[in-house]
Write a structure and sequence with these properties.
By secondary structure, the protein is an all-alpha fold. The chain folds into 2 domains: 60 residues, Homeodomain-like (Arc Repressor Mutant, subunit A, Orthogonal Bundle); 132 residues, Tetracycline Repressor, domain 2 (Orthogonal Bundle), CATH 1.10.357. 73% of the residues lie in helices and 0% in strands. The protein contains 10 helices and no strands. The chain starts with 12 loop residues before the first helix and ends in a 5-residue tail after the last helix. This is TetR family transcriptional regulator. It comes from Microbispora cellulosiformans. Pfam families: TetR_C_14 (PF17754), TetR_N (PF00440). Keywords: DNA-binding, Membrane, Transcription, Transcription regulation, Transmembrane, Transmembrane helix.
């Protein structure tokens, strides 16, 4: 008789391979849905595009669409950048000043994005700023990012995330981020967002000289 497997056994390498393949397939499906949605929005407008049309273009069912994106708004506003940025912040040397660490973390996070991903981000940002139905969702996303950054910087400094110092730092950084995004959209992506944001954070780090 074979012995029962322990629930806490170390995963077999083949288990990890299967999981990795499954995650890659899910990421590809998610990316395809978003790409087709953005294409349809550009061709026929956000309001005129239905979830059913997006699902058909992505060759998935509407129920599959909703497994990845709970609403049509989410296909524009959702992304996976916050976890990447959080990991990059935690990887910075502890002796770096807060703004220097954040600036380096943003550089690292952007390095994980290729040109196509930046193009999709530009398209999503344009939609988010021009479609009234998306603006409220963007506000929710900003609050989530602010909370994430506050938690990460408070953890790094051993401070309370609600302290005035942490909130002032995160508020200033988010202001710089929004200004960079607006410039990026106005320029239609002519200057890459990583360059705009790094330059703006440099001004902030230097005390905002004008």
């Amino acid at each position: 008789m074979s012995s029962p497997q322990r629930a806490d056994r170390t995963p077999h390498p083949s288990d990890r391979v299967v999981t990795s393949l499954r995650e890659r397939k899910k990421a590809k499906t998610r990316r395809t849905i978003q790409e087709e949605a953005l294409r349809l929005f550009a061709e026929q407008g956000y309001d005129a595009t239905t979830v059913e049309q997006i699902a058909e273009a992505a060759e998935v069912s509407p129920s599959t669409f909703f497994r990845y994106f709970p609403t049509k708004e989410d296909v524009v506003t959702q992304d996976d950048y916050d976890p990447i940025l959080l990991e990059a912040i935690r990887a910075q040397p502890p002796d770096l000043p807060p703004l220097t660490a954040l600036r380096a973390a943003f550089r690292t996070a952007f390095e994980s994005m290729g040109p196509e991903e930046l193009d999709r981000t530009l398209a999503r940002t344009k939609l988010s700023t021009s479609v009234p139905a998306l603006r409220a969702r963007i506000t929710e996303g900003l609050f989530a990012t602010i909370d994430m950054l506050a938690g990460a910087m408070a953890e790094r400094a051993g401070r309370d995330r609600r302290s005035p110092a942490v909130r002032a730092l995160v508020g200033a950084v988010m202001g710089v981020m929004l200004a960079s995004l607006f410039t990026w959209v106005e320029q239609d992506g002519r200057t890459p967002l990583p360059v705009l944001l790094d330059e703006a954070l440099g001004y902030l780090e230097a005390g905002l000289p004008i």
